[in-house]
Write a sequence for this structure.
């Protein structure tokens, strides 16, 4: 009896708690509506574009949702889903993810609720509902399935003694009406958005899989309507767990209910298109697939309009323009304009998105004026005070940038609409803030953060390697088709940490080839970081300039089937290379500006541009190096230095653990040879520098490196960091290899020119084999671009050889030019822009001190611009390194800078950027060989080397000419009066020999082996 009384009292109490739980925050809720009315109010505000107020309404709905001892009930799911959508559009992905996870956890906690729904309300043969009648004809023709606004749900359970003992939420049996279909739609939307934000990582986390497990078909479900709606919801959910094939299958099976559209039809079709735009295994879409995807998107647009799910219209159309080819752009444009005009009063969010898509489709079809008209309408909508569209504004900035490029502007050019548009896009991508705190706004950045957070725990497994491959490869076509803003965000990522992770993997696995390739990509990414779109525009220039037979297979395929604009630009560039002839006048800047504009347009298009510049290192390259040739690379990685050596078909790697001591040791060596002494005596009194060089070599080549110089004839060195300031020529040759050192010189002429050193134990690397340098391993192996075949030498000279005696300086210049074949001589003030030289100039030499721009190395000017040599240019600064990697294509084959000044001559070493960037940029502009100095000498010593550069380069090559000039210098007698580098303190150092490292070890030469491209991409 007592038990019966206890049960009765408990039941009454449970009913009392239930009546309170059904209200908003404990207040009785009129009509017991689930979700609460505040949710539907927020939905209307959201679709009208007022995201801030929509957030407040959805948060109110969340507070009003039913709450019990276990937390929120399923009526809170829609509020969480739409808050996630609001934060998605506002560019706050962490909060978006927070609400997605919260809504999905509620779904999991309340598993079984689908089995409590009375699905018979879907199968009572109700009349087909007509859609809205104020839309366009295709949308007006939509017929809606007779799905009621609410269905009955059996809540609670019969109370027994055993159930009371279990505790937890206790609720007596009750029947309540809920908008079950809307809750299901919001679950599907959460799953879709989760995949968009997390990409393939969504399938690796358990939450989405648990949602799929908790929303299985209820046992005994025999309602066709119920099975269709649940099947549609789960079909969209398959997108979140990476089962893309299932999504496509269910889109065909569950997108309609009895031939009519239901509430999840638009989202089901959008998910299907999102899968379809990924293309085949190679990322390609054939014309039939493109047409099908565009048609499916149109169906989604019409269904969403009829169902008043306006927010999905723009999303479907944006996917459509990504999937469309040249034949479908006009169809998408017309549909977008029609929807935008019709929905301006219904949903400014949808209307704005539609006009942006219309502009995107028009500019993709080459219709610039039409694109500008649609963009003008979009700007008018976005400018209203009560709307907030950060993500759509970023998409609009992308489209505006394409329009500006089509009207003649270019990335990296003068300020204009293109610069402003890319600045707005960059602000959203990289500088999005909430309460003055930076937040992640783009899926690619968010995914990278997730990858980096787990990389340390799983650095060696295959999934980690696959993720590294994804983020360090060119942006996929699927990303470009889905969201071009996210594609640009992915391009803009600093991939250096990822490449360093690959380097760590290679070091841990003792894999020399992988270490070499990781080093190459780190250095390539360093150059790209200083260029527009991180080198994507430069890759386009290389694609339209280089000979096809120099490309890797992916680039060859792209040129074989180019886009119309790429084909047009390549034809224009190739024609300009043919038509230039022997013209030694500066190239026409207007032609270059048009070509640069076209390159910018291509770079902004939805295209997968292969990374061709700088060229990469292939796995098979080790076997292609000529006999006697070695490739030595260094990568400064914190306190260690990772080194690799490639020769004789093998690549080996090792660690130099004393990276922290290296700059101090290097500075000591430079000081001992006199390179960085600012006052007092510069010439050394003894050979103490030899001991410092020997210690540096021991640090760089520890015993476990198994270093050998035997049989080495040519060594190409890729330094990093302060090692750029190290004259490797000063390192001592290994004693075990001295017996064969004479045989290792590259050719007989060089052997004759080498200075005789009677002490074989003091032989240097410079005496043992030929040394050249390269900014990246790829540029050590291969050339970039095309170049002139002309051999004419052009010299721009100042008072470099005798600064205080102009007549003597001019006499020295005249003597150097006398033996040259038809040279061109300019003063510094009269020299034309070196970055636009005609193809008649094959070799350019700047005989003047050149001080690099350390803060911005690519802004370094090759010819000084000062009061003594004033120069003006209507098209921007002359002679900057940045100008060399812009159009016009091609230029001199060689560039010599015998007066280049780096931090090697300063009291504090830098990071080598002022050497790396000019070498890399000039090489990427098509220059084959470069000679430069680490510190400036001037005087007779510089004249000795410069004379050989002018006279010998056209007949041999710059590397041989530099080596011969240095050899002559090492045998020359000098005087203090003839060397501006020396001061009064050095006057007692007579006689002065050119063999002092201060004079000859400053020179370095960069070139490549000119290898053929690999047979495969690997």
């Amino acid at each position: 009896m007592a038990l019966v009384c206890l049960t009765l009292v408990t039941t009454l109490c449970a009913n009392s708690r239930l009546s309170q739980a059904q209200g908003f925050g404990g207040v009785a809720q009129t009509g017991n509506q689930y979700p609460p009315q505040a949710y539907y109010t927020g939905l209307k505000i959201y679709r009208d574009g007022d995201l801030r107020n929509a957030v407040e309404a959805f948060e109110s709905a969340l507070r009003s949702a039913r709450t019990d001892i276990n937390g929120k009930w399923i009526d809170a799911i829609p509020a969480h889903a739409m808050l996630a959508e609001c934060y998605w559009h506002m560019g706050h992905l962490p909060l978006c993810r927070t609400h997605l996870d919260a809504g999905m956890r509620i779904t999991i906690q309340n598993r079984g609720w689908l089995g409590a729904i009375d699905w018979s309300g879907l199968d009572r043969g109700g009349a087909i509902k007509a859609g809205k009648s104020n839309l366009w004809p295709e949308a007006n023709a939509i017929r809606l399935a007779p799905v009621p606004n609410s269905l009955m749900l059996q809540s609670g359970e019969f109370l027994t003694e055993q159930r009371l003992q279990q505790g937890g939420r206790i609720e007596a049996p009750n029947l309540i009406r809920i908008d079950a279909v809307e809750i299901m739609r919001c679950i599907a939307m959460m799953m879709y958005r989760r995949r968009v934000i997390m990409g393939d990582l969504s399938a690796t986390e358990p939450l989405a899989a648990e949602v799929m497990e908790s929303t299985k078909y209820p046992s005994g479900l025999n309602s066709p309507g119920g099975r269709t709606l649940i099947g549609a919801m789960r079909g969209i959910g398959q997108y979140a767990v990476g089962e893309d094939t299932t999504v496509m299958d269910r889109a065909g099976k569950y997108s309609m209910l009895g031939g009519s559209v239901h509430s999840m039809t638009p989202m089901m079709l959008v998910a299907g298109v999102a899968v379809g735009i990924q293309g085949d295994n190679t990322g390609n879409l054939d014309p039939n697939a493109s047409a099908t995807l565009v048609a499916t998107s149109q169906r989604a647009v019409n269904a969403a309009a009829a169902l008043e799910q306006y927010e999905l219209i723009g999303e479907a159309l944006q996917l459509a323009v990504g999937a469309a080819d040249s034949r479908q752009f006009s169809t998408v444009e017309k549909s977008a304009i029609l929807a935008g005009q019709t929905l301006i009063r219904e949903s400014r969010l949808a209307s704005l998105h539609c006009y942006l898509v219309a502009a995107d489709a028009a500019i993709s079809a080459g219709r610039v004026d039409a694109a500008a008209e649609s963009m003008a309408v979009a700007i008018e909508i976005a400018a209203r005070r009560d709307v907030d569209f950060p993500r759509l504004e970023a998409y609009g900035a992308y489209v505006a940038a394409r329009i500006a490029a089509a009207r003649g502007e270019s990335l990296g050019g003068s300020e204009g609409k293109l610069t402003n548009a890319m600045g707005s896009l960059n602000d959203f991508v990289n500088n999005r803030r909430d309460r003055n705190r930076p937040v992640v706004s783009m899926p690619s950045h968010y995914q990278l953060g997730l990858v980096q957070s787990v990389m340390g725990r799983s650095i060696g497994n295959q999934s980690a390697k696959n993720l590294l491959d994804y983020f360090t490869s060119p942006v996929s076509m699927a990303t470009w088709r889905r969201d071009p803003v996210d594609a640009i965000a992915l391009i803009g990522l600093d991939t250096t940490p990822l490449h360093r992770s690959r380097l760590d993997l290679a070091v841990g696995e003792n894999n020399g080839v992988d270490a070499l390739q990781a080093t190459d990509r780190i250095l390539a990414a360093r150059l790209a970081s200083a260029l527009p779109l991180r080198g994507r525009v430069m890759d386009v220039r290389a694609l339209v300039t280089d000979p096809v037979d120099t490309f890797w297979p992916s680039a060859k395929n792209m040129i074989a089937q180019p886009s119309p604009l790429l084909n047009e630009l390549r034809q224009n560039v190739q024609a300009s290379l043919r038509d230039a002839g022997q013209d030694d006048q500066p190239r026409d800047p207007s032609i270059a500006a048009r070509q640069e504009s076209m390159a910018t347009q291509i770079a902004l298009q939805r295209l997968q541009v292969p990374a061709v510049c700088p060229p990469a290192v292939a796995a098979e390259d080790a076997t292609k190096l000529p006999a006697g040739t070695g490739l030595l690379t260094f990568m400064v990685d914190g306190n260690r230095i990772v080194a690799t050596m490639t020769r004789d078909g093998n690549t080996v790697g090792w660690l130099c653990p004393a990276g922290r001591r290296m700059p101090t040791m290097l500075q000591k060596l430079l000081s001992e040879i006199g390179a960085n002494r600012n006052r007092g005596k510069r010439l050394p009194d003894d050979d103490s520098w030899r001991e410092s060089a020997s210690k540096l070599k021991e640090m760089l080549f520890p015993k476990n490196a198994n270093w050998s110089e035997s049989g080495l004839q040519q060594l190409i060195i890729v330094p990093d960091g302060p090692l750029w300031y190290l004259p490797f020529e000063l390192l001592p040759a290994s004693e075990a290899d001295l017996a064969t050192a004479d045989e290792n010189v590259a050719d007989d002429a060089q052997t004759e020119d080498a200075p005789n050193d009677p002490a074989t134990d003091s032989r240097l690397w410079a005496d043992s084999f030929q040394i050249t340098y390269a900014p990246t391993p790829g540029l050590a192996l291969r050339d970039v671009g095309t170049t002139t075949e002309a051999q004419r030498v052009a010299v721009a000279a100042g008072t470099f050889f005798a600064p205080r005696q102009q007549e003597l300086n001019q006499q020295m210049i005249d003597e150097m030019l006398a033996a040259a074949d038809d040279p061109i001589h300019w003063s510094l003030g009269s020299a034309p822009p070196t970055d636009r030289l005609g193809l008649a100039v094959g070799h350019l030499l700047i005989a003047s001190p050149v001080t690099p721009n350390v803060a911005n190395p690519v802004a370094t000017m090759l010819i000084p611009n000062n009061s003594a040599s004033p120069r003006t240019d209507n098209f921007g600064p002359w002679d900057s390194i940045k100008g060399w990697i812009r159009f016009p294509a091609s230029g001199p084959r060689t560039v010599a800078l015998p007066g280049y000044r780096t931090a090697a001559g300063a009291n504090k070493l830098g990071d080598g950027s002022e050497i790396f960037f000019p070498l890399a940029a000039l090489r990427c502009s098509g220059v084959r060989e470069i000679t430069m100095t680490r510190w400036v000498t001037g005087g007779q010593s510089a004249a000795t080397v410069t004379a050989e550069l002018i006279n010998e380069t056209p007949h041999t090559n710059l590397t041989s000419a530099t080596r011969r000039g240095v050899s002559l210098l090492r045998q020359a007698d000098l005087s203090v009066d003839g060397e501006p580098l020396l001061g009064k303190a050095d006057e007692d150092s007579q006689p002065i020999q050119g063999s002092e490292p201060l004079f000859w070890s400053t020179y370095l030469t960069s070139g490549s082996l000119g290898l053929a491209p690999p047979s495969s991409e690997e």
In short: The longest helix spans residues 2-21.
